[in-house]
Write a structure and sequence with these properties.
The chain is of the alpha+beta class. The chain folds into 3 domains: 3-41, no CATH class; 48-151, Rieske Iron-sulfur Protein (3-layer Sandwich), CATH 2.102.10.10; 170-456, Alpha-Beta Complex (Naphthalene 1,2-dioxygenase Alpha Subunit, Chain A, domain 1), CATH 3.90.380.10. 20% of the residues lie in helices and 23% in strands. The chain is built from 10 helices and 20 strands. It has helices at 3-7, 28-31, 38-43, 186-191, 198-201, 329-334, 338-343, 361-374, 410-429, 436-456; strands at residues 48-52, 61-65, 68-74, 80-84, 98-99, 104-105, 112-113, 119-121, 139-140, 142-145, 148-151, 174-182, 220-225, 231-239, 244-253, 257-260, 271-274, 278-286, 289-298, 398-403. The strands form 4 sheets. Strands 12, 13, 14, 15, 16, 17, 18, 19 and 20 form a 9-stranded antiparallel sheet that branches. A 4-stranded antiparallel sheet has the order 2-3-4-9, with no helix packed on it. It has a 4-stranded antiparallel sheet with strand order 5-6-7-8, with no helix packed on it. It is globular, with a radius of gyration of 24 Å. The mean pLDDT is 92. Bound molecules: FE2/S2 (inorganic) cluster and fe (ii) ion.
Length: 460
Amino acid sequence: MTVRDEATPVDARAYWGYFMRDAPREDPELTHVGPGTAMGEYLRRFWQPICMSEDLADLPKAVRIMGEDLVAFRDRSGRTGVLHRHCSHRGASLEYGIVAERGLRCCYHGWLFDADGTILETPGEPPGSRLKESFRHGAYPTHEESGLVFAYMGPPESRPGFPVFDGYDLWNTRMKSFEVTIPCNWLQVTDNYVDPVHSMFLHSSYASTQLTESFLLRPYCRFLETPDGSGITHSTTRRTTDELVWNRMNHALTPNIGELGSPWEKGLEPVLFRRVYATRWSVPVDDTNTVMLGWRHLNDFVDPWGKANEDEIGKEKMDFDAQVARPTYKAGQRDPGDWEACTSQRPVAVHAAENLGATDAGVQARRRMLRQAVRGERGDLLPAPVNGGSRPVRTFSQDTTLRVPRRPDPAEDWALLGEVGQRVHDAIVAADHLRGEERQTFVQRRLAEVETELGSSPRT
Ligand code: FES
Ligand SMILES: [Fe+2]
């Protein structure tokens, strides 16, 4: 950008590329994630998935998380571990290590490391050597859950309890894990969590219908922080027929978690509080690479259409179109999806070059929250400590379709969509004190009341 750019009226800036040829700099406070960076330290306060369980069989796996080279493994007794990748003897990579009954053994001189970083053996040292007691190898605590291996990489004294979300076990849900590598900064991947309007274009109207045609309808959007500091919900409300209004709410949980509803939802049948379809973490590998790890939630309530395809959920695959790279560059050009949209915003999206509009309110709100969090201004955006109880984290991702007849006046009907969105939100928040099926039942009852109130008394 140049001074001329500022001083010249917009109308006079035709063919103005020459004066805009230098891209502004990226925003390091939100995007840089290596050790010691503001965002890196904030992200390290949360349990993060680092790989799929299926990767840890007879061989260790090299992983890179938040700019740190690590190795994950499962020893022969079944315990998982995450160690600094380079052997603390002379630096050979432990990705070539030998999985032992207890711990991981370096391939070079046979030093044996326990999952917590204890040096168990230094076989080449003379008898009586106390070398192995004089230091520890770098290690992080792990937790395995439904096909994903998590690590906590923050300060030991701040380790939170492992978060359990309240949508995990409703309706005999099975959770199938998946992994997608995305070569760009983590923040732009998570910006996509709070960008409901891209569904109208990228997924539904450009080259192919990646979502149902109902996503083509212009939504009334609303972005709200959740009452417990877990993040931001974005609510989209659409009129799908003269009789029906469909509200979808997705949830971007702090700092890098997104929960969303089913891509097969049409909003053409009444339904109350249909819950989460997928939970996903966008974990920074480093500043310019991300790995998305998460679960698909498989149950009859979220998928009454029977469209789930378990064979298509896993490593670099998802039973929902447009989530992974297209097979070729040209295929991506012809039919781009989220992967192409996010990775093409530059390796690190440059916020100073953006021109944000009304529909980017969620992106702006979430960036503001994260900035406050890394500056220590929002204690409520830190996870509860390990002894903070075992309450499940309430999540808000849902679909509700109510019978609410169309109002004759278009402006009034549009305002009504906003009211439906607010009333659905309020019904869910009113159940804040409840958990699990009790919460589900309460919200459904409240939403049925909302339907009666809005559906039976159309304004004139
Ligand atoms: S470098 Fe690992 S044991 Fe020597
Ligand atoms: Fe998308």
